[in-house]
Design a protein that fits this description.
Elements (H helix, E strand, L loop, with lengths): L2 H11 L4 H19 L5 H21 L8 H14 L8 H15 L9 H17 L4 H12 L1
Helix pairs in contact: 1-2, 2-4, 3-4, 3-5, 5-6, 5-7, 6-7
Length: 150
């Protein structure tokens, strides 16, 4: 995404309330931050992702109608995690489960519409990786069952 996309996104969103526009610009800023952090410290990026996901999770709880504006952020998170191989590190199981659960909640914020396919598919693949490393893992089995229920 380049600067022209940022301008287009802000122009498209400008007829909405200032709160929605401000949040949308914040989401776009997060996506650009992930792109620019690609050369930075991996551990710092992971901590940043967890902090931003926590804030996003809280925002989804308090403003569930704004869920779509977080999709670019979620896709950026997935891309960064894939690029750095975080989800392949079996020693970080609890963090991985928490991240998958957060992204899965976003993917199924509107379950009647079938969810956001690319995010849901990514979550499913990550649950399968967790199960591959630990076939009896309760969180992964529960997460997979949530996907099947949607």
């Amino acid at each position: 995404m380049d600067a022209s996309n940022l301008t287009i996104s802000c122009t498209i969103l400008s007829p909405f309330s200032s709160r929605y526009l401000r949040l949308s610009q914040d989401v776009l800023h997060r996506v650009f931050s992930f792109i620019h952090q690609m050369d930075g410290n991996t551990e710092a990026r992971i901590e940043s992702i967890k902090t931003d996901l926590s804030q996003t999770y809280d925002m989804l709880h308090s403003h569930p109608g704004d869920w779509e504006q977080y999709l670019p952020f979620a896709r950026g998170v997935m891309s960064v995690l894939d690029d750095i191989g975080f989800m392949n590190d079996r020693s970080r199981h609890q963090e991985q489960v928490w991240i998958i659960e957060c992204l899965q909640r976003l993917a199924y914020q509107q379950p009647d519409e079938g969810g956001v396919r690319d995010i849901a598919r990514w979550c499913q693949n990550q649950w399968l990786k967790v199960l591959e490393g630990n076939p009896e893992n309760f969180e992964a089995l529960r997460g997979e069952s949530k996907l099947c229920a949607h």
